[in-house]
Amino acid sequence: MLKVSNLNVSYKGLQALWDVSLEVKEGEFVALIGSNGAGKTTLLKTISGLLQPSSGSIEFLGERIDGLPSHKICELGVIHIPEGRKLFPLMKVVENLEMGAYLPRSRREVHNSLRQVYQLFPFLKERQNQDAGTLSGGEQQMLAIGRGLMAKPKLLMLDEPTLGLSPKLGAEIFKTLKLLNQQGITILLVSQEVYQALTLAGRAYVLENGRIVLEGENLLENEAVKESYLGL
Questions:
Q1: How far apart are the first and last CA of the chain?
Q2: Once rounded to an integer, what is the mean pLDDT over residues 202-219?
Q3: Are 48 and 55 in contact (CB under 8 A)?
Q4: What is the mean pLDDT of residues 17-45?
Q5: β-sheet bridge partners, residue 10
Q6: Distance of alpha carbon 38 from alpha carbon 17, whole angstroms
Q7: Is the model's pLDDT at 169 over the cut of 90?
Q8: What is the pLDDT of residues 69-128, one digit of tens each?
Q9: Which residue ranges form the domains of the chain, and what is each CATH number?
Q10: How much of the chain exceeds pLDDT 90, in percent?
């Protein structure tokens, strides 16, 4: 579904990604792990068109998307839920959700999508007329996921969805992502919750200093991962 090949990206005058290549197949749950500053957010921003690569290519469903504007990439079904949620805090919950269905392909399905999001997160229906900024951190993260689902994603990319949340709320987010993947949504997850991410993911990549240094299945059993990311 997604193929990134030999991607080089500079950010604020410094090269952030070096010859990065990865693949995500349809229906997969793939994790991308790495320390702060490794380039994970830069990679997601480049895939979604917020940053432009200096070289390399990005293909989605066989079509080159590097160089396309972000709204065109969204329209193809690549949906990016950024770190920090980036909600509209003074807009109502339902208005934030409706913003997820802004593009024509998803706008036609807005009522059906709202029903599906409310089934997944019933509390959002209860608070649909409440300002988004008054929700708790965990509730805001679920709203951000709901907004992403309103866009009818084929590939859902999430950047640190459990950052700053309690372990209990983080576990709820991971449970939701597992359910969405079981329902057929392909997921690329960036997370520093390494154990939980690798437990859920069928495959994973390790990004260090802007380079992919490890990839594969069962990385929880890898000695380098155990030592560097799990403290074992």
A1: 34
A2: 94
A3: no
A4: 95
A5: 15
A6: 9
A7: no
A8: 999 999 999 999 998 888 999 999 999 999 999 888 888 889 999 999 999 999 999 999
A9: 1-77+153-232 (3.40.50.300), 84-151 (no CATH)
A10: 78
Amino acid found at 149: L
Model confidence, pTM = 0.92
- The edge-to-edge listing of strands for the beta sheet with 203-208 is 78-81, 155-159, 186-190, 29-33, 203-208, 211-216
Please report the pLDDT score of residue 13 as a whole number. Answer: 85
> What DSSP string runs through the chain?
-EEEEEEEEEETTEEEEEEEEEEE-TT-EEEEE--TTSSHHHHHHHHTTSS--SEEEEEETTEE-TTS-HHHHHHHTEEEE-TT----TTSBHHHHHHHHT-SHHHHTTHHHHHHHHHHH-HHHHHTTTSBGGGS-HHHHHHHHHHHHHHT--SEEEEE-TTTT--HHHHHHHHHHHHHHHHTT-EEEEE-S-HHHHHHH-SEEEEEETTEEEEEES-GGG-HHHHHHHS--
Q: Estimate the crossing angle of helix 167-182 against helix 137-150, to 10 degrees.
A: 20
Task: Inform me whether the pLDDT recorded for 232 exceeds 80.
Answer: no
* Structure-block tokens of residue 215: 């990839």
